[in-house]
Specification:
By secondary structure, the protein is of the alpha+beta class. The chain contains 25 helices and 34 strands. About 1% of the residues have low confidence.
């Protein structure tokens, strides 16, 4: 068995499949492109689904890749087992309708066992297969695999609902008796027992059926295009080749671990208690790659995952005795380890460090808040005479504040408390089930469309023309090819001026005319067929014939509006980089007729000053009348050397189309554009908002729509000036400031009068003290102007200590009701009482132990509420 570095291992895998005619697909962003089924790219096939479902036909049906991926449904196991990670690399080879079972299995065996390649001893490999897949069993035996090393497993069938599915066969490496203390042997595989002896290193999925959940698996129809999807975890393979006790004892992680040793003063023991070292090393890799790909820590979705990973890493740092911020010191090491294949981590390290530093600093304050929460909870439990910290409290500390359970237990035990392990595990199980339910293995795929995949006729898109004479090549109606059709149908011409939706630019609309100039169809949409042709969706009013010639005419007004917005998008992209930073990576766009929408990664809201600066810069470029040049004679590498930015989600061939706007913007782009920036006319940002954790969105308009936006603002300003009785616009801010000052003075007077009124009422209210169950209480309906007045009364009550409990209710003029409950009794929770009383006014609420409030809408319920205070104490 060869001993290779991780970089050599990755290269050998890719070189092997390159030698078998595969094209090497570069690793894609961890943030999925146009795939709402996935939170993260979680496998090698996840970026290739368009090939597997047949919606796109690749240039080469043989593909191989090393794809970075993230899976987070088993975060708790990271560091505990030999092989769990959040971020990992999946090595894969794929066949799209080309080779199948015989070749795929032979390739796997040759790559793993051949002296020319990895040279893993054959007697160390065990293979599982689907029991009904006799062809796979026979193929392994043909290759010389000992039948005793072939294990049938009923679960070896890959399917995720409707769509491509099929049996799979998995290859395991036997690490020996050292990792099997009970000497269970092959039983561990047969009974699918979690173990560290047999490590799965390679999986071949034989995608040959169209799964249909409504019928038995035995009745699944075979796919028109059978595919091969494989996966091999780089970390596992490297651990085997380098003889690592776990995946962490390799050159992928040890440099990080050694730096953690320096920071902590602790020594890493590969076979000892070292979970914290592993957690930190794993999580900093995931954080570095994910942030580099545009994801940012936050409170939901991807952001929540990153925030949780960071906080978990920080807490494990504390367990190792590391004080203060330290994760940023590990980012350059991650970059150095991965530089040979992923240079972007080092290239973006300053930005990654900035985000992690900011998040660590914020978490420092959160830790203090969590500590305070734990202290308060323990004090409350002591007051209640309890000696166990509840599972729900432990989970809240773990999930919200990132406190490891062990740390919570240690702190609680120091205070004489026990831990409700069962309650915590129940909460964890609920969360894990939610995570697993939302996780899709490889992401869902659509069913293959054999009719569209069969369209092989060549069709040319004409960029520079708005009308063209073309021959009709293909008609598809009701999912069948026909020779003639009328009504709703899809068609392909030998050439077309109609742009197919791509890269955020919407499709052209227009008409189709016969050679006499009569309109015979309207074009309502254009998409790419699987083999790349522009597929027109049309409504034909007259019969169309395959082979006939037609005149195709796009809606020029629509195209021009779209081009204004698309060109402005390029200017906006450049302005964002110049003003808020290079990290503002495009995360999606839409170039419509009347507006443009641009999504980008950024860690905070764009400020009004930044919005103004962006708007100004884009307009200045427009007014410079810069020429817009399109070049199609460069490779991707040449274009990038020019500084071309690849737009989010685009896939580029050998030669690329480069759009150059003066000396201001260079981007790879397949869309249509104007001849000069001045044709845009005007640019106006309408809105900037957050649409997810770390993702912002700008909505903007150009040309006539921009003029209308400015005009509408002018109308609003005119109306405002008129109402303020200010003859000049520039006087409006001063007038508003003056009115605000008057309003503040008036509000102070109102507050003063309200306080006096509350004080006047309080004497009468506080005199009416009732008693029940050993508590004294006051319950009254009062007349006040706001909920704040109720709080003022509660403040007076606390000062006077008139009773143990105070219940006040008031009805406002708009028919709403406000309820306040306050308590001076340590073991009485105001929140509990307010929840019992709120239903009387059709309301709900909550609060702290000493004061809680509720809002409702049933004024008539106040009387009943006050009657039932005593029985609810």
């Amino acid at each position: 068995m060869k001993k290779l570095s991780s970089a050599e291992t990755r290269k050998m895998f890719l070189d092997f499949f390159k030698s078998k005619g595969h094209s090497v697909e570069p690793s894609q962003s961890l943030v999925p492109v146009n795939d709402p089924t996935l939170l993260w790219i979680n496998s090698g096939v996840a970026t290739l689904k368009k090939y597997f479902d047949g919606s796109v036909v690749p240039e080469n049906p043989r593909i191989t890749n090393a794809q970075k991926a993230i899976r987070t449904n088993d975060i708790e196991n990271v560091g505990k087992t030999a092989r769990h990670h959040t971020m990992f690399e999946m090595l894969g080879n794929f066949s799209i309708g080309d080779y199948f079972r015989p070749e795929a299995i032979a390739y796997a065996w040759e790559m793993l066992t051949s002296p020319e390649w990895f040279e893993i001893p054959a007697d160390k490999l065990y293979i599982t297969y689907y029991p009904e897949d006799h062809e796979t069993y026979d193929r392994w035996v043909e290759l010389g695999v000992d039948p005793s090393h072939l294990v049938p497993i009923e679960d070896n069938f890959w399917e995720i609902g409707a769509g491509p599915s099929g049996p799979d066969t998995e290859i395991f490496y036997d690490r020996g008796i050292k990792y099997d203390p009970e000497n269970a042997g092959i039983k561990l595989l047969v009974e699918d027992i979690e173990n560290d002896r047999y490590i799965e290193i390679y999986n071949v999925v034989l995608s040959q059926f169209n799964a249909d959940p409504s019928i038995p698996r035995s009745e699944y129809k075979e796919l028109p295009q059978k595919n091969i999807d494989t996966g091999m975890g780089l970390e596992r393979l490297v651990a085997i080749l380098q003889g690592g006790h776990t995946n962490f004892d390799t050159d992928l992680f040890l440099p990080i671990i050694h730096e953690i040793e320096k920071l902590s003063g602790k020594v890493y023991d590969a076979e000892g208690e070292n979970m914290s070292f592993k957690v930190i090393a794993d999580h900093i890799r995931a954080l570095s790659f994910a942030i580099g790909d545009g994801a940012l820590p936050g409170n939901e979705g991807r952001g929540y995952v990153l925030r949780r990973l960071l906080r978990r890493a920080v807490m494990h740092g504390k367990r190792l005795g590391i004080e203060g911020k330290f994760l940023t010191k590990l980012v350059p090491i991650v970059g150095q380890i991965m530089e040979s294949y992923y240079p972007e981590v080092l290239e973006k390290s300053r930005y990654i460090i900035k985000i992690i530093d900011r998040e660590e600093e914020t978490f420092g304050r959160t830790i203090d808040a969590g500590q305070k929460l734990l202290d308060e909870r323990l004090e409350a439990l002591k007051a209640e005479g309890k000696s166990t910290l509840e599972g729900s409290d432990i989970f809240r500390l773990y999930d919200t504040y990132g406190y490891p359970v062990e740390l919570t237990e240690e702190l609680a035990e120091d205070n004489g408390f026990k831990i409700d392990h069962a309650g915590f595990e129940a909460e964890m199980k609920v969360q894990q089930e939610r995570a697993r339910a939302s996780a899709v293995k490889g992401g869902s795929m659509g069913a293959q469309n054999e009719t569209l995949q069969s369209i092989k006729e060549e069709s040319e898109f004409l960029y520079e023309v708005h009308t063209a004479r073309a021959r009709l090549l293909v008609i598809v109606q009701q999912d069948e090819k026909v020779e003639k059709a009328i009504g709703l149908t899809q068609v392909v011409f030998d050439k077309t001026p109609f742009y197919a939706e791509m890269g955020g630019q919407v499709a052209d609309h227009g008409v189709i005319k016969d050679m006499a100039g009569n309109v015979v169809a309207t074009v309502t949409d254009v998409q790419h067929a699987p083999n790349g042709q522009n597929l027109h969706t049309i409504e034909a009013s007259s019969e169309l014939l395959v082979g006939a010639e037609y005149q195709l005419e796009i809606d020029e007004v629509r195209r021009n509006g779209v081009m204004k917005n698309h060109t402005a998008t390029h200017l906006l992209h450049a302005a964002l980089h110049n003003i808020i930073g290079e990290h503002a990576l495009q995360a999606g766009s839409l170039n419509e007729v009347d507006f443009l929408r641009f999504d980008f990664s950024h860690f905070q809201a764009v400020t009004p000053d930044e919005i103004a600066a962006i708007e100004k810069e884009v307009n200045e470029v427009i007014w410079q009348n810069l020429a817009i040049q399109t070049r199609t004679d460069m490779s991707v590498e040449q274009a990038k050397e020019m500084g071309a930015a690849a737009l989010f989600g685009e896939k580029y061939g050998k030669n690329v189309r480069v759009v150059i706007i003066g000396d201001y913007s260079v981007e790879l782009c397949g869309g249509t554009h104007l001849k000069s920036t001045s044709e845009i006319g005007l640019f106006k940002i309408l809105k900037e908002e957050g649409i997810g954790s770390g993702v912002r969105r700008i909505l903007a308009v150009t040309g006539a729509q921009a003029y209308e936006a400015f005009k509408n603002q002018e109308i609003i300003l005119t109306q405002t000036a008129s109402k303020l009785k200010t003859p000049k616009f520039e006087q409006v801010p001063e007038k508003i400031a003056s009115l605000q000052e008057e309003l503040r003075a008036t509000q102070k007077e109102i507050d003063k009068l309200s306080s006096q009124l509350a004080s006047t009422q309080s004497a009468e209210i506080f005199a009416n003290v009732q008693k029940t169950s050993g508590h004294s209480f006051i319950a009254a309906e009062v007349k006040v102007n706001s909920a704040n007045d109720l709080r003022q009364l509660a403040s007076l009550w606390k000062q006077k200590k008139s009773s143990d409990v105070l219940v006040l209710a008031t009805a406002f003029e708009d028919g709403k009701v406000s309820l306040l409950v306050a308590s001076n009794v340590l073991d009485e929770k105001s929140g509990d009482l307010v929840k019992k009383l709120a239903p009387y006014i059709d309301g709900r609420g909550g609060g702290k132990p000493d004061l809680a409030m509720a809002g409702g809408s049933k004024v008539a319920g106040i009387t009943e509420l006050l009657k039932h205070v005593a029985e609810n104490l």
